[in-house]
Amino acid sequence: xxxxxxxxxxxxxxxxxxxxxxxxxxxxxxxxxxxxxxxxxxxxxxxxxxxxxxxx
Length: 56
Description:
Order of helices and strands: HH
Helix content: 40-55%
Structural class: mainly alpha
Number of domains: 1
Radius of gyration: 18 Å
Distance between the termini: 55 Å
């Protein structure tokens, strides 16, 4: 039970730290858009490399 409470506390501290960064004007948290989303020929509307793939 102590391990669960400790883990929950660490995760809560991480969420609070991420939230404070966003609240105080840092860039919003965003995903990496990597992995299968950027495979050549795959259709991913959010992939930053999509324009490059369409030109090729």
